[in-house]
Design brief:
The chain is of the alpha+beta class. It is about 50% helix and about 5% strand. It is built from 22 helices and eight strands. A four-stranded mixed beta sheet has the order 6-5-7-8. Strands 1-2 form a two-stranded antiparallel ribbon. The chain has a two-stranded antiparallel ribbon with strand order 3-4. A hairpin with an 8-residue loop joins strand 7 and strand 8. Helix 1 packs across helix 8, helix 2 crosses helix 4 and helix 4 runs antiparallel to helix 5. It is globular and about 80 Å long.
Length: about 475
């Protein structure tokens, strides 16, 4: 050990770390809406995972690192035969639920997908004996809250860092608590999550967009499990990880700025979470795709007559998903606003298979993309950040060569928004049931649907009882 490393003379932990530890250890969730939404989130997230299993690019990422490895007291991966150690199981669950870009979303200064944390939560819930599904839902609510509140006022993408840093931080806090860690160990584990160095956003942007964006969250949530286990074994933490001059996160990676916070931790994020119900598309585009579906009957027989398509959107969508030029792979296409709009204008819908090469080869798609102009409506950008609205507005109008045009179709709130829960939940249920029906025989699928239908009985169920239905 270095002579100048004094364990007895370390600084007090950064407040960001202790605030999270206070929340994880001391906050009692008492919101019925949060628990109800968490149940829907659990159903939706696992449905996304089942749908991803039929894609070979996802399936090849799953299973033991060394083929044939046998793990005592193994963790199961829903929808598969895999029995793995908790770290690899967290990767696999996190990978499959994120693969299709169809699980929940949080949009703020930073964005992300808080249900990515289910990789760590469902893995450790099996590894730690005696837990119930209410423990799982509580962990989900708290992981959502940590990730979402950190994202409200702090843009990691603007300094080139990927949002999965927040998956790692949230999962680490919850993983340490689930493993029985002390308050101080939660603080220490969180320090390791920040000190790791963080993923660049390179793999999300042209010309380098690629499939790593589909397994990056699985990587982050599994890393959280590993860090929590390391600290549980007695490893120390680094209390000034954020604020240390020159060497801390703020100075090295955040332009010297400290994090800002809009609200204390509670259950706000789960209550406000955005579900991707109708379309497997990056969330800034969801209302644009819905508008395109509405316009499809008016343009499907007049594609060659279109002169111009005006997409009106918000600043974040322009910065993240507005793309011109060649799109190299499915990961590139599902983060291109113009592509995601062109497909439903042509065919009236957008599904995961529409990002594959055979669909993208349709020359009509790029022909429509070339006719699109993307403009910002400042009101949309303001309402996007308003905590009372949290809109994700898009509008579309199509102009024809003969001087006529469609109406301007404006949609401010996607079907998965809290303001549209009455419309959205039946469709979410249908999405869930369709995913089960495509993966399991009818009796098994119905048993899972019935198991998830009742809030009270699901919460009382042991984790092992729940998992057995999925394997």
């Amino acid at each position: 050990m270095s002579a100048n490393f004094d364990l007895n003379n370390r600084p007090d932990p950064d407040k960001v770390l202790t605030d999270i530890a206070d929340y994880v250890t001391g906050y009692k969730v008492d919101s019925e809406e949060a628990y109800r939404t968490a149940r829907y989130c659990l159903m939706d997230t696992l449905a996304c995972g089942l749908m991803a299993l039929k894609f070979p690019a996802c399936a090849k990422m799953l299973g033991p690192i060394v083929p044939g490895t046998v793990v005592p007291n193994a963790v199961r991966v829903p929808g598969t035969d895999y029995a793995l150690d908790p770290v690899k199981a967290a990767f696999d669950i996190g990978c499959m639920v994120r693969w299709l870009d169809f699980n929940d979303t949080w949009l703020a200064a930073e964005w992300g997908h808080p249900s990515d944390n289910l990789g760590a939560i469902l893995s450790l819930a099996q590894y730690v004996p005696g837990l119930t599904m209410k423990d799982v839902l509580t962990a989900m609510i708290k992981a959502h809250e940590i990730q979402g509140c950190l994202a409200l006022e702090n843009s990691f993408n603007k300094v080139g860092l990927d949002h999965v840093v927040l998956v790692k931080v949230a999962s680490t806090a919850i993983a340490m608590q689930m493993l029985g860690g002390t308050y101080d160990q939660i603080v220490d584990a969180l320090s390791h999550a920040w000190v790791d160095g963080q993923s660049l956003r390179t793999y999300r942007h042209a010309p380098n967009a690629g499939p790593r964006k589909s397994w990056a969250a699985g990587d982050a949530t599994s890393r959280a499990v590993r860090l929590a286990m390391i600290v549980k074994s007695g490893e120390i933490g680094y209390p000034g990880v954020l604020t240390a001059p020159k060497w801390g996160f703020y100075d090295v990676l955040f332009g010297g700025k400290e994090f800002k916070f809009q609200r204390p931790y509670g259950s706000y994020v789960m209550e406000q979470i955005l579900f991707k119900i109708s379309f497997p598309a990056e969330f800034h585009s969801q209302t644009a795709v819905e508008a395109a579906v509405k316009l499809h009957p008016l343009v499907k027989d007049r594609l060659d007559d279109i002169e111009k398509i005006t997409l009106t959107t918000h600043e974040a969508a322009i910065r993240i998903i507005s793309k011109v030029g060649a799109l190299n792979n499915p990961a590139d296409r599902d983060h291109c606003l113009q592509y995601m709009v062109a497909v439903p204008l042509i065919k009236g819908n957008l599904v995961a298979e529409d990002y594959e090469d055979d669909v993208a080869a349709d020359p009509r798609i790029d022909a429509l993309r070339a006719k699109m102009e993307v403009v910002e409506d400042k009101r949309y950008s303001v309402d996007y950040h308003d905590p009372e609205k949290r809109s994700i507005a898009n509008a579309m109008q199509i102009f024809f060569k003969d001087g006529t045009s469609t109406d301007k179709i404006e949609i401010e709130y996607p079907i998965g928004h809290r303001r549209r829960r009455t419309d959205g939940i039946p469709l979410l249920q249908a999405k869930f049931e369709a995913a089960l029906a495509a993966h399991y025989e009818a009796g098994k699928a119905k048993a899972i649907v019935d198991m998830c239908a009742n809030q009270d009985s699901l919460e009382k169920m042991t984790v092992q009882e729940f998992i057995q239905k999925w394997i």
